[in-house]
Fold:
Amino acid sequence: MGEHRLARVGAVLVALAGTGACGGAQPSQMDAQIANAPSDAEPRILLDVRQVSGGGNCMDPAHLDAEPPAIFEVTACRHTTLKGGRVLAVFTWRNRTGQEQAAAYGLANHVSPGPDAQGQPSRFPVAGGNRFAVPFDGSWVAWTILGQTVAVSPDTPDCGASCDSYGLAGPDSYPVDLCPDACGDGVCNYGEWCDSCSADCDCSSLYPLVDCVIPLPDGNKLVSFGYDNRAATGAALNIGPENRFLSGEPWRSQPVLFKAGAHHSVFQVTHGGDDVTWMLAGTAVTVSPDTPLCSQNCVSSCPRGSTCVADRCQGSCGDGLCVEGCDYCPDDCACAAGNVCVGGGCYNPPYCGHDGIGLECGVGETCGVRVDCGPCPDGQACNSMHFCEPICAVGASP
Structure:
């Protein structure tokens, strides 16, 4: 088996399939794994990726994977929550159009009956997909989006494995609910924003706070921020015009979920030069000469990468140490050129290539990227792993 055709199966399944979770080692890392692989490696550890994808002989046309259609997919199902036994209508979307889609709440994007916005998004990124849920009272509920309407009724199938899973605790397994939350359950959950789920999230009385400042030995300042949510429920504002820093990176580790009440020293930002300003729910706060110094009453010295603020050791976005994640603090955790940030981690997006890792043919989409690698040469067809394989002659066995 040639070394150039060796790869770890787990990385291949993610990097080549072009669907599902975003992941995979960087090309340089994968090349090193291949180059250092022993020539007598056991097949259960290192496999020829073409054997993984179809056998490396010829492809029966009946088993070829058709190119994914460029569509916006919407499905619906019923789910009974593991905790509390609540019945939910679950809607799932996937954007396979190759372009970001947007639909304001209203005629083109509404849930019925009830208010137009009930937890669904209004923007749908390229190659993105997700789900949202609303309580189901046993009659029906429908979502209309971009010219399509899907509904949940008493006859709608159960969500099954898409919402019900299992975890492992030693030799034993336990059930895990993947769809526990719904817009309208009284809790402002992540992914439910004040504009998309006003039933649970209230941003009408949300204010940013600049609590205190710590001068640092290098001449920079550590600024500690908090917030005051005077509403009776939680609030949620995604990073954007209503929750951002006005200079530099808009996200500097500030939260997107805000519990009711006043909360101090929630996050810290290290900066130098111009004063830093946080805009939240229409109100901006900026550190000034009158900002008080932070108290520092930690019972022990703080480890490297954290500073004592009030009575806790806390990290700071902008201190040059990546402990926050690439989406949470790009100043410290920016991804390398060519990689994309997904869920706080840096990943390789799909790419076209004949290096044993890249896609050789067809359309692949993951990590928010969609690539079209074109057709295979005459006499070959694109298999489900996006490799070109010879087409079996009529009557021949694959």
About this structure: Confidence is low (pLDDT under 50) at residues 1-21, 23-56. The first strand starts at residue 6 and ends at 8.
